[in-house]
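Submission sheet (multi-component)
Chains listed below:
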Amino acid sequence: MASLKVIPAPLDVPVAPPVRRPDPLLRELLGETLRSARQRQGRTLKEVATEAGVSITYLSEVERGHKEASSEVVGAVTRALGGSLVDLLTDMTVRVVPPLDTVAGGAEGLHAVA
Amino acid sequence: MASLKVIPAPLDVPVAPPVRRPDPLLRELLGETLRSARQRQGRTLKEVATEAGVSITYLSEVERGHKEASSEVVGAVTRALGGSLVDLLTDMTVRVVPPLDTVAGGAEGLHAVA
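Outcome: structure written.
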């Protein structure tokens, strides 16, 4: 039986720099957030679309990030999911916040003077 | 000089129920968030529109919540303001979170089963 030999990594190998993924498009993030919320509730596209007053096809396109939903539709679907705009924004933020170990430097924020 | 007399409120007067304002439309919230960020930076519509590659008229309409900006434009304007999607979402959330003393009950969130 061959013995296992632990080979330590040489100290002069540079550590890979942290990777920050580019921002997704807002409609992609919105779509996956709405889809995830609906699926967590175990509801079908048809149920939520009907309650929100939009077509199933349209809701499906929005969830896949293929269509820009109007603000009225965003509001209607969010309410159909039992949430408010704050809940939606919070869910979206949580999805897009990069894991701590991949953040390169501090967040600047919109408050910073460019 | 008339004396000031403190009249205690009768105990049986019902306390007014907390008022929760209806959610603004997403485009209105987005517009006022972008405008506020630009103004905090002391920058003109022209400067930011030029950097984002959109017309001044269009950016002005977006800022006033009159036009639905495409996700590409939201991204371009956010970057022109020196921020990321997380920064934008955070700023929007802070603007729409109701003050603590007006919240009626706890937030349900999109996680709740309707």
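Remark: Residues 26-99+107-112 of chain A form a domain with the 434 Repressor (Amino-terminal Domain) fold (CATH 1.10.260.40).
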